[in-house]
Design a protein that fits this description.
4 strands; single chain; two-stranded antiparallel ribbon; alpha+beta; 128 residues
């Protein structure tokens, strides 16, 4: 015998399934954003100038945003005003210029640039 479903029951079941799908995708995206931020942070640490090692050790990840809109900030907690000077170079006090050592952009390009593709795959898979 065939099962019969009321319209209200069908609507409730579809709502439940969509909520489950949304929760799974949200969790998957949040996990991927965390993993990507950690990978970028580790790559920045590895490529950072290591005259004393304090600058490279100062990198970390800060969580911002909401569950539905996760944001992560990779920044140098010990020396927040120094990264742009080391990345792009700067003028010396007595004249001349210190050349930059790219370490932030290469880390982002190696890991962060693929984040939209990874998120698209998570959405297609329905989470996981």
């Amino acid at each position: 015998m065939a099962n019969t479903v009321t319209v209200d029951g069908l609507a409730a079941e579809m709502t439940r399934l969509m909520r489950e799908y949304t929760d799974d995708v949200t969790e998957g995206v949040s996990r991927e954003v965390d993993n990507t931020a950690k990978a970028v942070c580790n790559a920045v640490k590895a490529g950072a100038p290591k005259d004393s090692g304090k600058y490279a050790a100062g990198w970390g990840v800060t969580k911002r945003g909401t569950r539905e809109n996760p944001k992560r900030i990779v920044w140098n907690k010990k020396y927040p005003g120094l990264p742009h000077l080391l990345e792009f170079g700067h003028a010396k006090v007595g004249g001349g210029r210190v050349s930059g050592r790219a370490h932030i952009r290469p880390a982002y390009e190696a890991h962060g640039a693929q984040l939209p593709e990874h998120i698209a795959r998570i959405i297609q898979r329905g989470g996981g």
